[in-house]
Design goal:
single chain; alpha+beta; Heat Shock Protein 90; 2 domains
Length: about 400
């Protein structure tokens, strides 16, 4: 009940128009201004009745436009049987305008057509009936009262609908832009997390393993060798961290160029470092590069392959049993295949903890290039020996959608 009453609460514009129309009509009646002759069917003060009803209808011009148009038309007809009030006619034109502007879309389309046909029909019919040109003037008067307000309302409504559609499009564009920005931020954070993990985890794993060995073995030579490896990895890790922080920091210095992304050409140096770090754990490393000298790979593919090999070596240092870690690279049919096989089984001595983030990062790097990644234990031949195999297939001839090809690590 309360909601229903609130829906019929008059708008401020309707109140102002109702008061102005009623007061104006009273003034016109008081000074004797009328639109009909004194020999009307309802003479005298009867003219005030249509005036008052039409003013009351103005209060509902927004909340019930269709209803007040029907009632207002009847009131306008009744006004013609009185001495006539110009204020009543003017308020009716506003009711027609409001019916088009605030009514349903169907009404907004039908009312201009209906009033236009009524105007043309009245002009032709009155001219034929009166046999004078006065019929055209009466048709014109009907058009000014009905058709012109309807056309004006349709134009205003069209502009308002266009403005509302533009506003909605602007909001949708802003929402899509915000979604794109959030996705870009998320993707960049994931890329930074992968880079930080791949760059730092290798050094920290070696530090963890050798520091554990130095603490658990009471041997001066072993301790010295472990401390040497720890120092080397600490210095290298610190340099990598400084390089990454320099890339993230917007210094505005044009002379500072971002360091180039690592490529497969740096695998020899990476393996040499892995041999140094894994010597105390009985690990050896071999590289079988079957790509061919003429093979040119896109920068995103080179970076992803390098990081996958780097993370695989880090995991081998953490978890692999003594033995040889084999790295194979093959490129054929537009696919670069990276395969790293590590000894799998019980491992003596210290072991660094793992979080699983490395496998997640490698899988993400392959997915960003529309590649395939798999990792898990595999039994070799009939010997029953198991190895942990990391295998990635990276397309080299597609348009890549990830941020790996930014040119920096």
């Amino acid at each position: 009940m309360t909601a229903s009453l609130r829906s019929f609460k008059p708008h401020r514009d309707g109140v102002l128009l109702a008061v102005a129309g009623l007061v104006g009509g009273l003034v016109l009646w008081a000074v004797g201004v009328r639109t009909q002759g004194t020999a009307a069917l309802l003479p005298g003060a009867w003219v005030l009745a249509p005036l008052a009803v039409m003013a009351g209808l103005e209060l509902l011009r927004r909340t019930a436009p269709r209803t007040i148009l029907l009632v207002g038309t009847v009131v306008l007809i009744v006004n013609q049987f009185t001495t006539g009030s110009l204020a009543t006619i003017l308020m009716y034109t506003d009711i027609v305008y409001a019916a088009v502007l605030y009514g349903s879309p169907v009404a907004a389309r039908r009312i201009p057509w209906t009033t236009g046909l009524l105007t043309v029909g009245a002009a032709i019919g009155l001219t034929a009936w009166l046999q004078r040109a006065d019929g055209l003037l009466l048709g014109l008067a009907i058009g000014l009262v009905c058709f012109l307000p309807a056309i004006t309302g349709a134009q205003v409504r069209g502009h308002r609908d266009a403005a509302e559609a533009a506003r909605l499009r602007t909001e949708q564009i802003a929402l899509l832009a915000e979604m794109d920005r959030a996705q870009a931020v998320t993707a960049e954070r994931a890329r930074m997390a992968r880079e930080l993990h791949d760059v730092v985890a290798n050094h920290l794993s070696a530090i963890a393993i050798h520091s554990t060995a130095a603490l658990s073995l009471d041997d001066a030579r072993t301790t010295r060798e472990a401390l040497t490896v720890i120092r080397e990895n600490s210095v290298d890790g610190l340099a990598e961290m400084r390089r990454l922080i320099g890339l993230l920091r917007d210094s505005g210095d044009e002379d500072r160029r971002p360091a180039p992304a690592p490529s497969l050409a740096a695998l020899d140096a990476l393996l040499e470092q892995a041999r140094t770090n894994g010597a105390s754990s009985g690990l050896g490393f071999t590289l079988d590069d079957g790509r061919g000298r003429a093979t040119a790979l896109p920068a995103p593919v080179e970076l992803a392959a390098y990081r996958i090999v780097q993370e695989s070596l880090t995991n081998a240092l953490k978890h692999a049993a003594p033995g040889t870690v084999d790295i194979e690279l093959r490129c054929s049919d537009g696919i670069l295949t990276v395969r790293v096989a590590s000894p799998y089984g019980a491992r003596p001595g210290p072991r660094a903890p793992g979080s699983g983030a490395g496998l997640v990062g490698m899988r993400e790097r392959a997915a960003l290039l529309d590649g395939v990644f798999e990792a898990g234990p595999v039994t070799v031949g009939d010997t029953g020996r198991e190895v942990w195999v990391v295998r990635a297939e990276l397309p080299v001839s597609r348009n890549h959608r990830g941020p790996e090809g930014s040119g920096t690590s």
